[in-house]
Amino acid sequence: MVQLLLSKTLEGLKSGFYSPEVAKVDIRMSIKKIIVAALVLSAANYASAATQTWDFVNGSGSGIENDNAHGLGTGSYIDMTVGGVEVVISAWSSTEAVNCNVSDCSYDSDPGISRAELKKYSGGLGAINNDEVNDSPNHAFDSRISYNPSNPDEQYIDFDMMLLEFDTEVELTEIDIDWYGGDSDMIVLNYAGSGNGGIPFGATDTWSGLLNEGWNFVGENMDVSTTNNAIVANSFESKYWLVGVYNPAIGNYGTNYGGNDAVKIAGVVTKTTDPSTQVPEPATYALVLMGLIAAFRRKS
Ligand SMILES: [Ca+2]
Ligand SMILES: [Ca+2]
Ligand SMILES: [Ca+2]
Ligand SMILES: [Ca+2]
User: Fold this and answer.
1) Rounded Cα gap, residues 99 and 92, in angstroms
2) Distance 118 CA to ligand 1 centre (A)
3) Exposed e or buried b per residue across 190-206, where buried means at least 16 C-beta atoms within 10 angstroms of its C-beta
4) Please, are residues 258 and 164 in contact by the beta-carbon 8 Å criterion?
């Protein structure tokens, strides 16, 4: 496009049609048009990808509801919408006593998945699982040991995870925690299969077992801080995401990094590529080009 505009001007100069002064003005006009065209094109490209910033604490629709809804069974959840995208948030943990493989049992004696109670605090969302009472840090998404109040010898390590079910495929790009207790290692999974990810999870499912049921280990973010969002290195879109505490049965850091984490998840950032807002690039280029040629024709 630049070449075309400049060659037109040069042609004008060579043929004596333009005086050097007119050519100078014309080059300036051409540059302005190129800048405008570039802005139009980048705006068109920008519209094809949208970003949603989810505030689970203060965002609109972030109230906890408690119902048998969204095919999850009875329990607490949040149903909120940002930029036309809807998410249902629920909490799950490894609190079911099931027969498990040796690697699971070595750190988590009851690794079967069951629903936990989703809670909201100023520092973010937390989860109280079936083996916990409402105390800190267990009311967070955590893997800290909880003791049975009536029998302190009974101890459980459970790995709490947040399930995010979007109504369209999204890329999860950032996680925001506003509170942590002790350690703050986190893990992210998403669903790559064609079904609904086996949701609601069954009591015989385990977190590591999900990897054989269409779920992906996306990554781990160790020592997540409350001042910088955890960046999720991923470009894969999915409707189903699990975000929670680091789990040695899945992650690469080994057993020592697990069982001591507690985070309150305050929000996430997602990205969608919406075909309905996508301006076909070749058509846009053609339109801009036609406009510029028309402008030149009018002038000459
Ligand atoms: Ca918990
Ligand atoms: Ca706990
Ligand atoms: Ca457990
Ligand atoms: Ca840890």
Assistant:
1) 19
2) 9
3) bbeeeeebbbbbeeebb
4) no
Interatomic CA distance for residues 21 and 24, integer angstroms: 5
Measured between alpha carbons, how far is 29 from 26 in angstroms, rounded to an integer?
Answer: 5
Span 108-148, pLDDT tens digits: 888 999 999 999 999 999 999 999 999 999 999 999 998 87
Calpha distance 9→27 (Å, rounded): 7
CB 3 within 8 A of CB 27: no
Q: What is the pLDDT of residues 141-195, one digit of tens each?
A: 999 998 877 777 778 899 999 999 999 999 999 999 999 999 999 999 999 999 9
**CA 96 to ligand 3 centroid distance, Å:** 7
- Residue 165 alpha carbon to ligand 4 centre in Å: 26
* pTM of the full structure: 0.77
> What is the CA(261)–ligand 4 centre distance, in A?
5
Distance 8 CA to ligand 3 centre (A): 73
The ligand whose atoms approach the alpha carbon of 145 most closely is 2
Protein residues within 5 Å, CB atom, of ion ligand 4? 183, 185, 257, 260-261
DSSP state of 187: E
